[in-house]
Amino acid sequence: MNLPAANKIPDKLINAKIYKQGETELMGTADAEFPSLEYVTEALTGLGLAGEIETPVIGHFKSLGFKFKWNTVNEMATSLLYPEAHDLEVHASTQVYDAGTGKLANSPVKAFLRCLPKKGGLGKLEPGKKMDAETEMECLRIKMWIGGNLALEIDKLNFICRINGVDALASVRRDLGME
């Protein structure tokens, strides 16, 4: 007996492709790592507090590093080292298990990233092995859709921090005379 489709469990990444925006050519074969989202924090201390509390600065994040580890060095990988902003698009499909129906399904994930180059490695030379060339980028902007819905938008230069439809920096932009 099947239950109603209600308990959808995110399972794993099926696969993904990364493109330079506007390009149709695959960037190369690589592993990629999205940025870790770590807030800028400051310790809150003083009279009336029984200790120290690390509080986040609303909408402000530490370095947002996006990393590639390429199977081999290639022209697309080295093109990302040019000192200008690079717009990247990630198209992915994740697997979801529906505990109610017992069926597996897929769900789209799409991300747009505007990045500057930080570091590039050309890899190692070992016969019959991956070169593991690395490219590290700094994200200025990241916008991610999960299942077709905008889930995250962080734009450091335009004071945008939108998480599940709520912009944490909207009132800050007004305070700064930006709106």
How are the elements arranged and paired?
Layout: E1 8-20, E2 30-33, E3 39-44, E4 53-61, E5 65-70, H1 75-79, E6 86-98, E7 103-120, E8 133-146, E9 149-155, E10 160-163, E11 166-167, H2 170-175
Antiparallel strand pairs: 1-6, 2-5, 3-4, 5-8, 6-7, 7-8, 8-9, 9-10, 10-11
Q: What can be said about this structure in brief?
A:
With 179 residues, the chain is mainly beta.
Report what the structure shows.
The protein is mainly β. It has one domain (8-45, 52-148). The protein is built from two helices and eleven strands; from the N terminus they run βββββαββββββα. It has helices spanning 75-79, 170-175; strands at 8-20, 30-33, 39-44, 53-61, 65-70, 86-98, 103-120, 133-146, 149-155, 160-163, 166-167. The strands form two sheets. Strands 1, 2, 5, 6, 7, 8, 9, 10 and 11 form a nine-stranded antiparallel sheet that branches. A two-stranded antiparallel sheet has the order 3-4. Strand 3 (39-44) and strand 4 (53-61) form a beta hairpin. It is globular and about 65 Å long. The model has no long low-confidence stretch (mean pLDDT 93).
